[in-house]
From TrEMBL:
<dbReference type="Pfam" id="PF00005">
    <property type="entry name" value="ABC_tran"/>
</dbReference>
<dbReference type="InterPro" id="IPR003593">
    <property type="entry name" value="AAA+_ATPase"/>
</dbReference>
<dbReference type="InterPro" id="IPR027417">
    <property type="entry name" value="P-loop_NTPase"/>
</dbReference>
<dbReference type="GO" id="GO:0005524">
    <property type="term" value="F:ATP binding"/>
</dbReference>
<dbReference type="InterPro" id="IPR017871">
    <property type="entry name" value="ABC_transporter-like_CS"/>
</dbReference>
<dbReference type="InterPro" id="IPR008995">
    <property type="entry name" value="Mo/tungstate-bd_C_term_dom"/>
</dbReference>
<keyword id="KW-0813">Transport</keyword>
<dbReference type="GO" id="GO:0140359">
    <property type="term" value="F:ABC-type transporter activity"/>
</dbReference>
<feature type="domain" description="ABC transporter">
    <location>
        <begin position="3"/>
        <end position="233"/>
    </location>
</feature>
<dbReference type="InterPro" id="IPR003439">
    <property type="entry name" value="ABC_transporter-like_ATP-bd"/>
</dbReference>
<keyword id="KW-0547">Nucleotide-binding</keyword>
<keyword id="KW-0067">ATP-binding</keyword>
<dbReference type="InterPro" id="IPR047641">
    <property type="entry name" value="ABC_transpr_MalK/UgpC-like"/>
</dbReference>
<dbReference type="InterPro" id="IPR013611">
    <property type="entry name" value="Transp-assoc_OB_typ2"/>
</dbReference>
<protein>
    <submittedName>
        <fullName>Iron(III) transport system ATP-binding protein/putative spermidine/putrescine transport system ATP-binding protein</fullName>
    </submittedName>
</protein>
<dbReference type="Pfam" id="PF08402">
    <property type="entry name" value="TOBE_2"/>
</dbReference>
<dbReference type="GO" id="GO:0016887">
    <property type="term" value="F:ATP hydrolysis activity"/>
</dbReference>
Length: 364
């Protein structure tokens, strides 16, 4: 089922929680709503489910206007962070509960429960009470219950945040497998960018009630439209600057680190425009051999070293007091010490020129 939000607003009194949302979730997508706490993700999900009214705008399921349709008629399955299982009912009864309200024969109910027990691998737990299950198993029951109604759209609201790291990773695999098997259009809310990047077929990043960008995980990481997204999706260094010259996609930017050459602009910009330069910590090269060859050479001091196992992170500082994070894989042992002077290069293909950083108010 394709889901479309058209110019949707949600206001609580004077406060706008969701501001002019235009979003198309393709049929069969595993679509993520990603953003910091308070940015409007849950409100968007609740409007989709019909649990919250739409103040202005329209919502469509497969082209049909469902803006005013009651929640019960939308065929939505929901899974919440806190599982929301009935504690006094067995796994079987918990799954059966949602089906009893539907017009199904006893055989149909039985068949559906068997199907979802199979898909969520819960067959051996049917007689247990939720209190006798691990967090991951409880979350699978919540998923089984949502799937049993054969929803048009499955909504997942921070489903993994109560689980420890190992269970979280297992549940990620489970959700991906189930999504593949069922093909149900799924909208998944999280503030965890790693979850969204590793699982999503598409991601919408929200900030302070606004949808900032929708793209595939790879596109979002490689082509962020704003400094907020560059910093929220993965790590980056953001350096304020001003355009000194432009020729096609190539530009020179005046910054506190000197003039930086760039081969990438997120949008056309003119000379004199204020910008924000983004460069990923893994894209900066340290000149181990002191060859002096490379684009955008910079002389910097090593302020701090953090050993991360597979890599080391250096915090470097230049004359203009601008700090730069640089990630190193396979750094030679004892290569540098705090206080050392180093030369770095920033390949112009990795120097991304973005619009300037703007304050977006609450939700940041
Ligand atoms: P989190 O990750 O913390 O759950 P979120 O992105 O899901 O955050 P929402 O729960 O959608 O954020 O809330 C968006 C904004 O709307 C918040 O500032 C919140 O305080 C506000 N809000 C939500 N529900 C109401 C309400 N019933 N009345 C007034 N304001 C509300």
């Amino acid at each position: 089922m394709e889901v479309v939000f058209k110019n949707v607003f949600k206001r609580y009194g004077d406060f706008t929680a969701v501001d002019n949302l235009d979003l198309k979730v393709e049929s069969g997508a595993l679509h993520f709503l990603l953003g910091p706490s308070g940015c409007g993700k849950t409100t968007t999900l609740r409007m989709l489910a019909g649990l919250e009214t739409v103040t202005e705008g329209q919502l469509f399921f497969d082209g049909k206007d469902v803006t005013k349709q009651p929640a019960a008629d939308r065929g939505i399955g929901m899974v919440f962070q806190n599982y929301a299982l009935w504690p006094h009912m067995t796994v079987y009864k918990n799954i059966e509960y949602g089906l009893k309200l539907r017009k199904l024969t006893a055989d149909e109910v039985k068949q559906r429960i068997e199907d979802v027990l199979e898909i969520t691998q819960l067959k051996n737990f049917v007689h247990r009470l939720p209190g006798q299950l691990s967090g991951g198993q409880q979350q699978r029951v919540a998923l089984a219950r949502a799937l049993a109604i054969r929803p048009n759209v499955l909504l997942l609201d921070e489903p993994l945040s109560n689980l420890d790291a190992k269970l979280r990773s297992e549940m990620r695999d489970n959700i991906l497998r189930i999504h593949k098997q069922t093909g149900i259009t799924t909208v998944y809310v999280t503030h965890d960018q790693k979850e969204a990047l590793s699982m999503g077929t598409s991601i919408s990043v929200m900030h302070a009630g606004h949808l900032i960008q929708t793209a595939s995980p790879r596109n979002l990481y490689n082509h962020p439209k704003t400094p907020f997204i560059a910093g929220f999706i993965g790590e980056t260094n953001l350096i304020p600057g001003r355009v000194k010259s432009v020729q096609g996609n190539q530009s020179e930017i005046e910054t506190g680190l000197g003039i930086l050459k760039s081969n990438r602009m997120s949008e056309p910009m003119s000379v004199g425009a204020e910008v924000s330069v983004s460069i990923r910590p893994e894209a900066i090269a340290i000149d181990w051999g002191k060859s002096g060859q490379g684009e955008n050479p910079l002389g910097l001091a090593v302020e701090h070293l953090t050993y991360l196992g597979e890599s080391e992170q250096f915090l470097l500082r230049g004359d203009g007091d601008i700090g730069l994070k640089v990630n190193f894989y396979h750094a030679p042992e004892h290569s540098f010490h705090e206080g050392d002077q180093v030369t770095c290069f920033m390949p112009a293909d990795d120097v991304l020129v973005l619009p300037p950083q703007v304050e977006m108010g609450p939700g940041t």
